Fold each of these.
Amino acid sequence: MTGPATGGPRVVLVGPMGVGKTTVGELLADRLGTAFRDTDADIVAAQGREIADIFVDEGEPYFRDLERRAVRAAVEEHDGVLALGGGAILDDGTRALLSAHPVVYLSMDVEEAVKRTGLNQARPLLAVNPRKQWRELMDARRHLYAEVARAVVATDGRTPEEVAQAVLDALELKEA
């Protein structure tokens, strides 16, 4: 199957870390009979190291530059389901690029986020006080996720399969 009339991904998933973009994205790709791609995985593969290590070794600005380039490449090359890293929408150019594509913001509340991400040290932006830091991240990002999204799908209390179905329904996509 091909992407939208403008070319590019059939679905782009955005949202905070731990919301399930990869899990839901893989389910969506399977249901749509297309490929799945995750820009965080692209960065890890290209760099040969984990994102947390990039943050520690090179700093957030360096990572954000890698992320911006990975998103641009994926949007230009991929016509399936695409998941973006949680902070990808911080870049003005990325948000502008996404405006021509079917973007779904997967949301969750703070209690769900803490339950899903826990005290995971592999998430560098939540290393000290996860609950407080997640709230601060979401205060800074929530409006940006909503700005790029054609639809918002809440994930709280839902299985990945239910979330995938909600995304299909929101974008009025038919399974393959």
Note: The two ends are 9 Å apart (CA to CA).
Amino acid sequence: MSIDTAASATALAGLAPTLANQGGDTAVDSSTGSATSVLMTTDGQKDLTLDFGSYDAPVSIGDYVRWDANRDGLQSATELPVAGVKVDLLTLPAP
């Protein structure tokens, strides 16, 4: 079994896959983009250890705050970091 990444591109846009095989319990951990199951030959037979997880891809902010002296939006060698700036990361409500 595998995820058809081309056919699923729109549905998975902006999402990152969860890490596979975490925690040592295959009944509750995620598989990678493809997984192998036990042979199933009986009608209605299930393998509940197969699953694929995705989450909102992480974002990041830069490594320092600087004063953009010439207001060009570019980080120039002469524009040094500003010390003592506090950055608060907030969780916004879902749209």
Note: The longest strand covers residues 15-17.
